[in-house]
Amino acid sequence: MRLLHTSDWHIGRTFHGVDLLADQARSLTAVAELVAAESVDVVLLAGDVYDRAIPSADAIAVCNRGFEAIREAGARIVATSGNHDSPARLGAGAGFAAAGGLHLCTTVAACDRPILLEDEHGTVACYGIPYLEPEITRAELDVPQARSHAEVLAAAMARIRADLVARGTPRSVVLAHAFVTGGEATGSERSIAVGGVETVPAAAFAGIDYVALGHLHSPQTLTESVRYSGSPLPYSFGERSHRKAVWLVDLDASGLREVRGRELPVVRGLRALSGTLDGLLEDPALDAAVDDYISATLTDHTRPVEPLRRLRERFPHAVHVEWVRPEGNPELRYRERVHGRRDIEIATSFVGDVRDEPSAGEVRLLERALAAAVTERDAPAAAAPEPGELSA
Ligand SMILES: [Mn+2]
């Protein structure tokens, strides 16, 4: 039996305000093509299907087209809810969907009821554990004292082991959405820390043939059989050096036989650029970057006007720009910078810092405004009420 492990689709996520649905649709098409090319039997989707509890109609359409493409490519799907999903909404219609090969595991009470997958060697029991928020799930899991992710996940795994023993099924797969000790976050995951305890030991899954993890966004191997697939697309500039991937997992009669990584196509590259605005707009070496998402750090002496609009004339997918004054000293605290300086010096340097050097006319205007403020401060407060009048 061949499984494909993916997670953290985050359908509907935006990237610095830019809609990613078209990119996400392309990455799901790539997953479906891989399913067909590799004759995958079952796709495991370990949570964070959507980016939010109430996804947009367009996000739902993209996700359903992805599910359908995978189904048409020949695989069933086992999906769980992650910390971004609404279990109830994602799981709506799960009974009917299961009849068509889409198994939506979103209820805690059913975490020990496996989807039974058959191959020539017999049955594989596949358990989908939805994301377990300790506060919300400890009563249902009958561990009212539990405060940590490790405790509620251990309770779910105890139920799964009891079911495996009762069933006498030798081969098993578990999907879970958790932060397992030793995993590395990329920065685009939402924290699930409760009271500082969010990690779960990999040993919690001992004895399971393959554990498909979700939550962390880069592919990683914790043990041969406990892995994160990561997200199919990068969701932060910190992930620009990552190559997104899925795991192809082969099970034989005795359990796990082989796991192979398969890279997913780069739908649109990510690039962090640094330089003056004119430099970035003219540098011929950046021709290769014009289709990428761009985060630019501008080093111009004065703050450029409308830098993002101008960058987009060459880089239509520029999404983030910041200006770092090259000679600025970020170590210097503001109080020290203004100490001993006249009001007009502080005001003109402030305008220079946030925009550009003020013109002579603007300096005169600032001088008049400061002079007027001083006059107002020193004049008798004719219009202000006397202290005694306030109670009237
Ligand atoms: Mn996620």
From TrEMBL:
<feature type="domain" description="Calcineurin-like phosphoesterase">
    <location>
        <begin position="1"/>
        <end position="219"/>
    </location>
</feature>
<keyword id="KW-0255">Endonuclease</keyword>
<protein>
    <recommendedName>
        <fullName>Nuclease SbcCD subunit D</fullName>
    </recommendedName>
</protein>
<keyword id="KW-0269">Exonuclease</keyword>
<keyword id="KW-0378">Hydrolase</keyword>
<keyword id="KW-0233">DNA recombination</keyword>
<comment type="subunit">
    <text>Heterodimer of SbcC and SbcD.</text>
</comment>
<dbReference type="InterPro" id="IPR004843">
    <property type="entry name" value="Calcineurin-like_PHP"/>
</dbReference>
<dbReference type="InterPro" id="IPR041796">
    <property type="entry name" value="Mre11_N"/>
</dbReference>
<comment type="similarity">
    <text>Belongs to the SbcD family.</text>
</comment>
<dbReference type="InterPro" id="IPR029052">
    <property type="entry name" value="Metallo-depent_PP-like"/>
</dbReference>
<keyword id="KW-0540">Nuclease</keyword>
<keyword id="KW-0235">DNA replication</keyword>
<dbReference type="InterPro" id="IPR050535">
    <property type="entry name" value="DNA_Repair-Maintenance_Comp"/>
</dbReference>
<dbReference type="InterPro" id="IPR004593">
    <property type="entry name" value="SbcD"/>
</dbReference>
<comment type="function">
    <text>SbcCD cleaves DNA hairpin structures. These structures can inhibit DNA replication and are intermediates in certain DNA recombination reactions. The complex acts as a 3'-&gt;5' double strand exonuclease that can open hairpins. It also has a 5' single-strand endonuclease activity.</text>
</comment>
<dbReference type="GO" id="GO:0004527">
    <property type="term" value="F:exonuclease activity"/>
</dbReference>
<dbReference type="Pfam" id="PF00149">
    <property type="entry name" value="Metallophos"/>
</dbReference>
